Amino acid sequence: MSRTSRYNIFIVIPAYNEGAVIKNVIREVKDTGFNQIIVVDDGSTDETFLHAKKQKVIALRHILNRGKGAAVKTGIEGAKMLGADIVVTFDGDGQHDPKDISKLLAEIRKNHDVVLGSRFLKKNKIPWFKVVANFVGNFFTWLIYGIWVSDSQSGFRAYSKRALRLIDTTHDRYEYDSEIIREIARHSLKYTEIPIKVRYTSYSMSKIHKQSFVNGIKTVVRMIISS
Predict the structure, then answer these.
(1) Residues contacting residue 214 through CB under 8 Å, at least 6 positions apart
(2) CA-CA to 112 of 20 to 30 Å: which in 8, 17, 102, 223?
C-alpha cells in the first residue's frame, strides 16, 4: 500500500530489454512511497525479468515480444485481479520522474477517470523529431477519435477504478496509447492532462524500436484500419 492509504494503488511498468536501468527505475518509484509495483517483461532478450524479480515486485513475463500495449494490458489486468482502485502506467526506460506520480493521483482524487501525463505542457528539452512525431500522432488521434490532446503517445497515465472497468482495448503495440483516447471518447470518461518532467538520456535515446519512422507509419495505419 502506498502512502495514499485510502486507495489500492498499483504502478504498472512495461519493460522491453531494460535490464540496464530497470533496477533504478523500480528503486526510484519505491523511494517516492509506492511499493505495489507490477513489472511486465515483454519478451526481453536480456535480464530485465531477473533484475525486476530481485527488487521484490510482482514480475510478469511475456515469452514473446508482443508490444508495449500488450505489456501494459497484462499489467493492468494483474492489478485489477489484485483489487486495484487506481493504476498508474510508467515507462521502464527511466525517462519519467516518479515524483510526478503523486500529481497524477491528485487529479484522480478530483474525480477524473483518466489523467494523461504530458511532456509538452512543461518546459522540457525534447528532440525536434520527437516533437514532430508527437504532433503527427496527436493530429491522427484527433482526426480518428475526435479528441485533441497534447501528448497522445505518453505512457505516463493514471486510471480510476471506473476507467479500469470500462476501457477495452485491442491493440498490442504503440497505437495502444492513442486507443485509450478512443475509449475516453466512447465512454465519456472525465479526463485531464497535466505537465510531467521528461528525462532523455543517451540510454533512452538509444531505444531504436521506439523511434522508428516505419513503426510510426504502421501505428497510424493500424489506427485508421481499426477505426
Answers:
(1) none
(2) 223
Q: Could you tell me which of 62, 80, 63 has the C-alpha nearest to residue 71?
A: 62
Give pLDDT tens digits for 61-70: 999 999 999 9
Domain that includes residue 57, residue range: 9-226
Q: How far apart are CA 148 and CA 209, in angstroms?
A: 26
Q: What is the pTM of this model?
A: 0.88
Q: Is the pLDDT of residue 47 over 90?
A: yes
Whether 3 is in a domain gets the answer: no
Position 1 in a domain: no
How far from 145 is each of 67, 73, 113, 115, 149, CA to CA, in Å?
22, 20, 18, 17, 11
Q: Which segments of the chain are extended strands (E)?
A: 9-15, 37-42, 58-62, 86-89, 114-118, 157-159, 191-195
Domain count, the chain: 1
